[in-house]
Amino acid sequence: MKNAGALVGFLILIFAGTLFFQALSFDYYSDYGPGPGLFPLWLSGLLILLSIAYIIDCYRKNIIQLKDILPKGAGLRKIILIMVSLVVFYILAPFTGYSVAGIIMLMILFIKEYKWYWGLGISVVVTVVLFYTFYSVLNVPLPVNSFGL
Fold it and tell me: What residues does the DUF1468 domain cover (predicted)?
């Protein structure tokens, strides 16, 4: 499919359809008025209608080619680098903990932009600040290693 607008419209349609069928499992009404299924059911139904209208519009007049919006050259390499660093973080975090995985992920991202020691320093500071903020201040459970980091 070369029409990027229609592709996005179909993805939104699938997402909205999934939300719609999940919203059917909630009660539409409760003893006190509208139930937890009312709002998501109507919103996902509206999103289904709007995505269908967008798909029709994309095929009628607003054809956006997929090759026109995808980056090329250095931009594509940066996007691939970001994806690789996220996959590395996802794989390492359960074993090494958030801190080590975060430092490695940020080092992968900073390695081409800064000298190695600046990249390492920024990675350590950012990871430690985020770990302290989420783990200690906000009490969000993060994966830790045997040292508690």
Answer: 7-143
Which tokens go with 134? 């989420």
Residue 125 has pLDDT above 90, yes or no: yes
The DSSP output letter for 141 is -
Q: What are phi and psi of 73, to 5 degrees?
A: 65, -125
Helix (H) or strand (E) holding 34: strand 33-34
Q: Is the pLDDT reported for residue 10 higher than 90?
A: yes
Q: Where along the chain do its domains lie?
A: 4-69, 73-137
Instruction: Assess contact for 6 and 55: CB atoms under 8 A.
Output: yes
Nearest to 113 by CA among 91, 84, 82: 82
pLDDT in tens, 34-92: 888 889 999 999 999 999 999 998 888 867 777 778 788 888 889 999 999 999 999 99
